[in-house]
Amino acid sequence: MADAASAGAGRRDLATRRDIEVLLRRFYNEAFRDEILAPPFAELASHGLEQHLPVMCDFWETVLFRAGLYRRNALTVHRRIHECTPLSAVHFTRWLAVWTATVDQMYQGPVAEHAKIHAGRIAAAMNRRLTGVDDPGRPHRSLRTAIKEQPCAF
């Protein structure tokens, strides 16, 4: 796989809610087919994206553009998933790898970089809060290091 800088060459930055929706659709398409991510995403895949997508667009539009649309607690939803399909650092590492690769394939620029950085923070925080496992010192860095060691190629 090409490195992140060349993967997004010639691509524009994330700029609109529609950009976020297109990114999320591609991301979920990859996640549903991924051997590690498919089990925790099974219920979402079976019920379809159409109800979930507006919520995720609200979340990422709030994160990236300060839209103030997302007012839910993401940890609550992920706790329910964790109860059905126990999540581990392997899941969060893979989620981050697929997210990063998808962003890099589609967009480049400061907002795209922010989407990847924030996703790393989310992955580390969710892992820590759901599993109680925290890499001594820097969980964000350990997940990012794992991504570099096992990049996602599709």
Automatic annotation (TrEMBL):
InterPro entries associated with the record: Globin-like_sf (IPR009050), Globin/Proto (IPR012292)
Name listed for the protein in its UniProt record: Group 3 truncated hemoglobin ctb
Family matches, as SUPFAM superfamilies: Globin-like
MF terms (GO), sorted A to Z: heme binding; oxygen binding
